[in-house]
Every structure is written in C-alpha cells, then in structure tokens.
Amino acid sequence: MTLDAEGTIVSARAGLNGQAPRCEHVDVLRAVEHGPLECKECLSAGRTWTRLLVCLTCGWVACSDDSRGGHAKAHYQETDHPVAGVVEPASTWRWCYVHRRTV
C-alpha cells in the first residue's frame, strides 16, 4: 500500500494507467428527470444555444459553456451542483465543474 503526503492511499485516488483521479462527484449522482429541453434564460433574452446540458443533481436544463449565455455554468456557480451531462439521446458525456474535466 502506497500513501501520498496527505496519507491517502494512492491507488484509491488514481485512475487506470495514470489517468486523472476518479471524480467522487459521480459516485453520489442519482437518476433525475430533466426539465423542458430549452434554456429558459436564453429564451427570455431572445438568444439561441449551441447545445443543452442537464444538471445531474437537480435536472435543470441550460445552455452549454460554448453557447453565448453559458447558463449551465452559471447554474453550477449558484448551486454548487457539480456535474452536468449533455442532453442528447444515448450520450454518456458528463462534465464536472469542480474538477473542470469530463468524467
């Protein structure tokens, strides 16, 4: 067993083959139903979006960071809900705002 400087077991925090550490935020996600497939903030401002993300904590749907509004990130900043997924059929892509990477 190998420990790091903080006393954490290295194998417990490391990914396979030297990949980034596992995101513990995905371990606490539960199934949520998402809201309407629209970004309410963009609609009220008369804007369009590039793609939609759903908050995997509460189901809030908002535009992605590459959209003009970036409302999904704003939702994270307001709520601290860490993980969002893309609203596309059969997609498994998820983004952790805390770790700033896909998970």
UniProtKB/TrEMBL annotation:
PROSITE patterns cross-referenced by the UniProt entry: ZF_UBP
The protein's name: UBP-type zinc finger domain-containing protein
Highest taxon in the source lineage: Bacteria
Coiled-coil residue windows: none
UBP-type domain location: 21-103
Family matches, as Pfam families: zf-UBP (PF02148)
Taxonomic placement: Bacteria, Bacillati, Actinomycetota, Actinomycetes, Streptosporangiales
Species per Swiss-Prot/TrEMBL record: Nonomuraea rosea
SMART domains reported for this sequence: ZnF_UBP
